[in-house]
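User: Let's play a game. I give you a shape written as tokens, and you guess the letters that built it. Ready? Here's round one.
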């Protein structure tokens, strides 16, 4: 199955370098045009099934790329809750003791009043297995399996969709790909409106 990961279009908060998590921003008009231009250049592969975060910026992006197709919202695909850093820019946080402590921790500690990288990854992967169960029509209960860190374990899946698109957040993409493909969370950063594809195959029984 081909998995297509697309980061949502740019918002005003993204443009200003802010931590945009639970804030439900729309994408910018110029980002709409950029995404449409990418679509016209066939940069986004077709997909049999489309999953999105419930956030407006992801839904708007998916509607541009896959017009007329049903969108399946996965609540667990929402962006990280940045807590007290929400909608603050790097410049505004510079010099704060709690921000420096978070930086010194390698970005792995929970945001003050928010989520940690590991919390986001566990939540996101719960949603990912739910989505894969829907796409693959696999055995009931697949969504309850714990994610492997180095490989995707999906035994006993029956044929389903050949491709699935995930129009989500940067943090969601980093969480899924670091779990499925291995490597560090931050190895999988992509820009707004960018796309990356991964092919997965269940192990033979």
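Assistant: Ready! My guess for every position:
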């Amino acid at each position: 199955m081909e998995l297509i990961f697309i980061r949502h279009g740019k918002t005003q908060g993204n443009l200003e370098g802010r931590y945009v998590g639970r804030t439900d921003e729309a994408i910018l008009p110029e980002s709409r045009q950029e995404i449409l231009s990418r679509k016209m250049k066939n940069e986004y592969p077709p997909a049999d099934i489309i999953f999105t975060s419930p956030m407006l910026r992801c839904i708007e992006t998916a509607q541009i790329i896959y017009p007329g197709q049903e969108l399946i919202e996965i609540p667990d695909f929402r962006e990280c809750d940045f807590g007290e850093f929400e909608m603050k820019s790097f410049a505004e946080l510079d010099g704060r003791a709690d921000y420096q402590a978070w930086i010194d921790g390698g970005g792995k500690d929970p945001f003050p009043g928010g989520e940690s990288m590991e919390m986001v990854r566990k939540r996101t992967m719960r949603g990912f297995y739910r989505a894969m169960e829907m796409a693959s029509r696999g055995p009931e209960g697949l969504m309850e399996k714990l994610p492997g860190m180095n490989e995707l374990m999906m035994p006993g899946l029956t044929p389903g969709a050949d491709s699935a698109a995930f129009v989500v957040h940067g943090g969601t993409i980093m969480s899924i790909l670091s779990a499925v493909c291995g490597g560090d969370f931050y190895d999988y950063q992509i820009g707004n409106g960018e796309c990356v594809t991964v092919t997965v195959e269940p192990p033979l029984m």
